[in-house]
Amino acid sequence: MGFFKYKYIKHCIFLIVLIVFINLCQNTVYAKGETEKNILIISSDENYGNFMDGNKSMSWDNSILSSIDSVFINSKQNINVNLQYLDFNNVSQDTYFQEIYNLYKTKYKNTKFDAVITIDDLNDSAFKFMLKYSNELFPNTPIIFSGVSSFDKSLLNNHPLFTGITKNSDVKSTIDVALKLHPKTKQVFVITDKSAYGVSNKNIIKSFMPLYKDKVKFLFSEESDINKLKKEIDSLPEDTVIYLNASFKDSNNKIIPATTAADILFKDSNIPMYSRESLSTNKQSLGGMMTYADSYGNSIGKLALKILQGEKPSNIPVTEDASHNYEFNYTQLKKFHLDINSLPKGSKIVNEPIGYFDIYKSMAIRIFILIVIFVVVLETLFIIFNISKRRLAEKLLSDHESLLKTLINSTPDLIYFKNEKNEFLEINDATLKLLNITRKDYKNINMNKLNDISIFTKELLDKLKRNDKKAWKLGTMYRMEELMLDQVDNVNKIYDTLRIPLFNEDKSPKGLILLGRDITQHKQNERNEKFIRELKYYDELKTNFFSNISHELKTPLNLIFSALQIIELKNRRTLEDKDLEKYTAVMRQNCYRLLRIIDNLIDITKINSGNFFTHLENNDIVFIIENIVTSIVDYVESKGINITFDTEIEEKVMAFDLDAMERIILNLLSNAIKFTPTGGSIEVNIHDNKDSIVISVKDTGIGIPKDKQASIFKKFVQVDKSLSRSREGSGIGLSLVKELVVLHSGTIELESAPNQGSEFKITLPVKLVKEDKNSRNDTIIKHNSKIKRIKIEFSDIYDY
Fold first, then answer.
1. 363-390 pLDDT, tens per residue?
2. Domains of the chain, each with CATH number or no CATH
3. What is the DSSP annotation of 673-684?
4. Burial level of 236, CB count in 10 A (0-12/13-18/19+)?
5. pLDDT tens profile 3-48
6. Dist CA 791 CA 788 (whole Å)
7. Cβ atoms 322, 296 nearer than 8 A
8. Rounded to whole angstroms, how far apart are CA atoms 738 and 685?
């Protein structure tokens, strides 16, 4: 009993000394002239760094702390940060919690904090401590937690001041990816240590072990003797993967560097090993799910700033960190013959060889350097030769310059040179032709004296200048594709351009070279290949269409012939008028349907060929749509369907094609009637958005599945292929509606779900057209014409 008492006294003394030391080394973020904010950061880790073969690196908690500190500094706010490191590794948590509570209660009795931040990793000790004592130690103080890996929302039921960012379950993710990459695995060998951190790691794995029942078994080792552990690893069967999360000590009780320990255990091992630790410290690891402490800390810091600016924690939902990703060691992937393509999407590969693009870039730089060296050597030779034969050299130099210009001007590629002021030094004929200026005038470009150039030339010069500046800013070769208008040939051409900025020794701009090649034909070939594929698709679609339309045209005609045949047979007897009316109605409806199909086909063909024209007139669209709806009320109600019309405005005069608008509304109403059962309802509404109006046609019908909605407006595509008599169609109506809406510069949208009805929303811009009063047509819809249009548009709604 005395031993344990002495142990706890020793820990308390250590904690007091540690707190005093930390307070002497407080890191304060200070900004003058602002109210000071006090932040307390509690870390469950102890205040020491990890070591990589003698080089100190920051621990997980310290890396997060550093990033939080940077966020506070960059915010330029007056923030005072108090740090508390808690070492929970070697003590009983419950007893230690009580000791920490007593210490904090005394120390912070008269201190008011604006927020408290907790930092954890695996054991969640700091978070659990605040859950238990925050109300007593820091009443009415927001708590921002981080690093919590075992989080349950119910933990915060009585803690409205808590919010934070949980930590991704990188342990399970690492084991999952190991099992995926090694599907023949039968056991997972887990290496941990006996520290509280190791125990937490072990408990986390045990918590999800039932998920792998009957798939793999887990073996645990807490062996601290590295030589004994090496023997255990060497005796493992080949169907094993290893998960490592432990530290090791030598015979002198000194920590063995992570890199050294990994080399001893796994360098000659044939068992794949995975770990959450950085691949820079464990070069024998295949990899795993890594959480980046710096990015995570940055997110925590920004969340804390929101709290300091007055946002309530209860209004900030708890989120999971996005600062993690899979990392894999290229060397180990090759050792175990793993395909990089089998890795999770977005994985980061460490130690991967230089890629093709980098090699190409390096090769281009070398070629450029060789060219520069060649030019320098050539100029040197000219200077030496000039000593003995100056005049001859001047002539030769002139000849070479002329030859160089001839070569440059003979190429169809674009070439020009600029100085450090972004002024043209030389420009070849191909570039002059593209700019549509003469060689005599091009130097005036630099002096802004070229006034008689076309607007296209001016725009092209500005475009080239902007892209040249991008190359200067980038500081290296800049390659891109540019679309340029060839004014001589009056065609747009695509150029593959390469800009090479040159710099002096002091890194100041020296010059710029542009090389541009016409790749229009190459791009056209690519488009042709795509066009051929599309043609094949549309050819198949056309075949299906004509198969459908053949059926659609023959069915009404066959019905007409059948009805006529019955009339002829009846006429030989005494035919009642009611029967005659029935059969003639059938003939008339199918004639209207055939007329509708033909009209739609003709209009679609005109639209596709660009020969369909709208006649825009200024009319009251509210009156027109209300008139259309009113005219079909009796018909709709005879089907047992309720129809209503509502509008936010009584009048809205705008330009639209009266006939096209009538067809749009009737077509949508026809669809609504066909797919709405008896007892359902249809609503037509008009909403005013000042510069636009929204026309809504909503029904309570059978709805349209999500996977079918993308094709609802495509030509010749039928969503309902059941061919039930009451729902027949040609697949043209809605595509024609969309085309007519587009001709009005509008859009049409669909909101629908199975058994929840459908709503079509048409948005049209409100605009007026100038009209000739003398030639203005009467826009009032005549009664007979309106009835005929309704019969045509509703002709595919059958009652038999």
1. 778 888 888 888 888 888 878 777 766 7
2. 2-166 (3.40.50), 170-295+324-350 (3.40.50.2300), 611-793 (3.30.565.10)
3. HHTS-TT-EEEE
4. middle
5. 334 444 444 444 444 444 444 444 444 444 568 899 999 988 765 4
6. 5
7. no
8. 19
